[in-house]
Amino acid sequence: MKEIFAEEKRTQPRYHVRGKLKGYILPGLSPALGSTPPFEVAITDISEGGLSIVSPHVLTVSSPIRCQIRLGRVPVSIPTLAQVRWVGSRSPRTGVRVGLQFLL
Fold first, then answer.
1. Residue 46's closest CA among 26, 70, 66?
2. Does residue 84 surpass a pLDDT of 90?
């Protein structure tokens, strides 16, 4: 049986990091969402173009998110805007893996 591999679309290397992301879905750009509370999730890896998180809830592809990124024990957070590019399958123990692309 032949294995089929998905084509890798990333152009920058990914780096595994320990960090947290505090996110705010921007309701003005996604009116169907209404006002949602901020969420805090773990960052699994990061690259020049974006990052991957593990979320307890499913996020909608194309949703814009205002992010505060905190890496390791660095005492400051990095503000940026990102967009949900892909949503993985849900795992009952770990949550949903989500890919975010930096917009700034």
1. 70
2. yes
